[in-house]
Known about the structure:
Layout lengths: L25 H6 L14 H12 L19 H10 L11 H17 L9 E5 L2 H19 L10 E5 L4 H9 L3 E5 L10 H6 L5 E7 L11 H15 L5 E4 L7 H4 L12 E7 L11 E5 L11 E3 L6 E3 L9 H38 L3 E3 L8 E6 L8 H9 L7 E3 L8 E6 L6 H19 L9 H4 L5
Parallel strand pairs: 2-3, 2-4, 4-5, 5-6
Antiparallel strand pairs: 1-7, 6-7, 8-9, 10-11, 11-13, 12-13
Helix pairs in contact: 3-10, 4-10, 5-6, 10-12, 11-12
Amino acid sequence: xxxxxxxxxxxxxxxxxxxxxxxxxxxxxxxxxxxxxxxxxxxxxxxxxxxxxxxxxxxxxxxxxxxxxxxxxxxxxxxxxxxxxxxxxxxxxxxxxxxxxxxxxxxxxxxxxxxxxxxxxxxxxxxxxxxxxxxxxxxxxxxxxxxxxxxxxxxxxxxxxxxxxxxxxxxxxxxxxxxxxxxxxxxxxxxxxxxxxxxxxxxxxxxxxxxxxxxxxxxxxxxxxxxxxxxxxxxxxxxxxxxxxxxxxxxxxxxxxxxxxxxxxxxxxxxxxxxxxxxxxxxxxxxxxxxxxxxxxxxxxxxxxxxxxxxxxxxxxxxxxxxxxxxxxxxxxxxxxxxxxxxxxxxxxxxxxxxxxxxxxxxxxxxxxxxxxxxxxxxxxxxxxxxxxxxxxxxxxxxxxxxxxxxxxxxxxxxxxxxxxxxxxxxxxxxxxxxxxxxxxxxxxxxxxxxxxxxxxxxxxxxxxxxx
Length: 468
């Protein structure tokens, strides 16, 4: 057997102990409450820290009952395990984590095929932290392509971007941050999104592109992307202006391919240069992951792609963020693999069925008027009927919150500021049974609401719920 003579005495040498491994003082844990706005002087036991944080988080709303958010609030336990195993992997370090990078490439290829890219193998794309970053990247590509075409006039000329007033706030941020004029098509009457001809009329030689929304967050309706492209085709025939289209498919780009296969909105339309979606919305992944794809390499200027090698290997990257976890990308690939086309179709159809069914029940109550019915995005908006004077949508939202339901109430933008609505987002996990409970709670509230002398919400601005 091996013989050990021991080691020479080296003085009072000690093992190095990570502070997380060391025991905390039980008496200190009981006698000293840690401060909330500065670092405590001493560590506390992990079980104590866990319980303190958990107790405070109990006061958050229940995410499954949050009908304001489009973001995924439920995934299978197997997906959660994969995410836990990958949360320490840095998505940007593709040399160190080549298989995670490969899963990202596969997701891009799958989306290119799903969105009917002319040649999915030549489409380019990337994962992002969500649709907001994806929209920023798409807008940057539009601006850079326009600047190259107008090198003799830019930077003297001011670029502009045409879109409906109903766009998500990230587009306002893009125009602000990148010094692009936002040209907004207003709402008119019962049209709550962009009008194609009005959008074309706002275009000129300084227009970098037009944004079409496949699923307006205000009411869940699809914008007519094919009609928009046709209007811009006509503009080009009359004036020679060749204006590209970006489709913000944050939600609809993961619904329409499965439920509305004949709808023309994607790369089948030659004028569509780029598309984004949120993997963490109807892509069915926890936040945050988004995707941005371009028709081909020509649509994404090469000078926007940075190449770094200090992490090992040559890594092209196009992102506003740098380090971020690979867990969400892995979860997206898992979900694509797990569900396939038929699985996604079943999940999205179930969500649409819940939305249309619940919308019908709310309309049948007689106190409300539907703006949309959930037959595009599984989302619908409704307001009080014209003869309802005792209460308004803000009262309904407040009273539903007492039962745990988070249903946003908000006012529409310019030209329809007179219209205030409630909106219900039906996601995977919001089942027909839960929809039935919501309808029952709403019906039980109506007698009290009808007895009010008048609407009770004084500050409508403060009452307005998050509507994106």
